[in-house]
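Re: Re: token formats

Sure, here are both.
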Amino acid sequence: MKSLSSLVYLSKGNLPSKMAHTIQVAKMAQAFSQNIEDFELVTSGDILSAIQGMNSDFQTWYGLHHKFKLVRLPMHFKIKYPFPYNYENEIFYKLAILYACLKSPSVVYTRTPTIAALLLKIGVPVLWEWHEPIPEGTTSFYQALLNNKKLLGIVTTLPQLAENYIQHGFLRSKILVAPNAVDLKNFLPYQDKQLARKKLSICQKHKIVLYSGHLYEYKGIPTILETARLLPDYKFVLVGGWADDIQRVQADYKKIGLSNIILVGHVNQTKLASYLYAADVLILPTSKYWNLAGATCPLKLFDYMVSRRPIVASALPTIMTVARDKQNALLAEPDNPISFKEAILALFENPVLANAIAECAFQEVQNFTWDNRAKRVLQFGAERLQAADEDVVSYRMGLMKYIKQKVFSRVDNYLPSLQSSQAR
């Protein structure tokens, strides 16, 4: 009987980074390591980090509580962490694949389409996690992945995405829908609002509406600024963002004369909880005009839910797979500042409602943990491995020769003509 006893997770090579998808990778890696005997996460690094592997800086950045085997292939002599948002290294892809082949795990796991395509060419059993619909104009590349019998299955976050893959001919039985999750330990011990504000030197009297995440326009930042204009007596605190985006938002709010915006910048996962605990209301104003609005399962939503603070979120179908109006959140019309203003005021004016939806969200999110998600993925992987043909799960003879002839010399033939979208 085939079993899933070992797993190698090949990342994009950009950990640590400010990109949200790397948080998901690191948290899933930690959870995998607690639920499978032989696990490794592979990323890139420099010579020193390759020697260190998992160090305290990496753990603090992602708020990790358990050490696991972190392989940092020395692609650079010396670099400054975190990696830039657009980091891409095709040589890393080649070496990471070579490393995985030499380890011969039960399954290789990845979120990177290029890595998945190359592994399938070699004949390595792959579980592919993917959070986007099949892009227009790239059907042939993705069709080749979906039709490859060596692809054990796809792990995704939303039923809408699963339906998209089925429409492109992928079998429903080979798809696992597993929403994103939260690391509950990052929010322990619980902090009341007064304590959190004292730790962060935030005025106790302010009425604080807080957003955490990147400051891209499609995340709803224009909606936040306009809502702040409508609510001048409230402080809008934005936690996160690249330096360029912070400067852009500063220019935007100064242009319209706002004085109630506070930009904090990026904070690591270890410190994020204090900011969420310091808030009165948490806001998630994702724009309906974002091309991936129909594919988003925001990590911040689950962080918000565990903080026991009431949430106002965009009423998008994807967000509504978790958030339910007047039950565990208030839902506002996307891109409509007046709708967000009314929802925020409703929470401040009705503390009973605010406490009720915050407590409901907190109770429900207890099931959305990375540990639970990892167990589901590993069970799914074991079932798919058991159902696979023998030639799917056995490595080919002369593998190294094949890699040299078919991959290293012709790798460009298999690289997709697109950049994979950065995680939500």
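Second one below.
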Amino acid sequence: MAERRGLWQMILVQVGWHISVSAFLLGSTVGSGTNFRTGITAILIGNLVLSGLAVLIGIVGFRAGLTSYLISRVVFGVRGSVLVSVVLGIIAMGFIGVLMDAWSAAIHRLVPAVPAWTIIVGLAIAITTTAITGFKGLARFKSVAVPVEILIALIALVIIMTRDGGFAKVLAHNPAAPITLTAALGAAVSTWISGVALVSDVSRYARSIRDVVISSIAGFVGGAGIFEAIASISAMKVGNGNFVLVLEGLGLLLPGVIMLILALWNTADNNLYSSSLAFTNASRILGAAVPRAAWVVVAVLIAVVTAFAGFAAEFLKFLTIIGVLAPPFVGIVVSHFWLLGRVREASDRLLSTAPLVRWEALIAWVAGSLVGYHTTFFVKALNGLIAGAIVYAVLVLIREKVFGRQAAADPVTTEGTA
């Protein structure tokens, strides 16, 4: 409890994490493909859904004081959590690598004297300095970055809205290549569903359930949602959701570059922190006492390699991968603790009673991923989440019905719980 933080720090870290350059990419997609009402509705509903899921998982992290990867031990089993940790850890840093690639190229085009590779390396060093010290480093940096980002975004929005037809031009926007509300909603959910999966890494520092709820809503709606909406409005008004290029056109190149760097740094150091926790969890289970600081370096190298591989053009495909693999994990965790009522179990016994492998969870993860990948109706990410949750609950209930709850559990172990 001595490590718990106040509400303001929780809000800063959550909002800073979710003010991401991915908001500008999503905003460009939604803003160029929808009218104002459809676009804002998709962004609002998508982030409210994410907020609700984040609250459910965040409360588990708060009550137990566990990272998302220690929670995965409880749900997937000690050995089963190794696979979860490696997959989610690589996804988190691969996503950052794609963003590094996209935005280092953007900065290079605006400031040709600065090579793109130096921007990638510089960002890698920067995010390492804040992530390596854990929550304290994240909170310290975001206390400076978040107010600056909000100020720049508001100034840009005011300038955009007061020029060339005002807000009426946004309301009159008709996309040349329209996308459906469902497609826009799916993009909004997929962009930050991995953040929901990792939210316990932050929420475990909260002092109360109230703080978990407020900070989660602030992060997804106030951070991701508002910046996605601003980027969408920008795309509708001037045809571009890339705030750096928009600000350059307004004669505000330096604020645009600052905005971009802070937004990428804010998200990347949180993902780096979570990935290092993931790899630490996996290594300890496998018997390797590698310190978290070393895994911070390994995780940032994954992002750098991804960036140099040039995957920026595949951003939407990368979102598809995240939208297939991350939602079932979220659904299974919600199902375990809330649908099956395990949230009421004593938090100090969660790890000590974890089985070696919980096959129901692994089967449900595969099933949910397949449903999310193959379905074409509704929102693919939510389809996978719901399928994973239902399959897991059904398999657990069947097993307990056949063998009884105690007998159905795998042999328990305290392996790797340090």
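Confidence is low (pLDDT under 50) at residues 410-418. The chain has one domain: 7-314.
- S.
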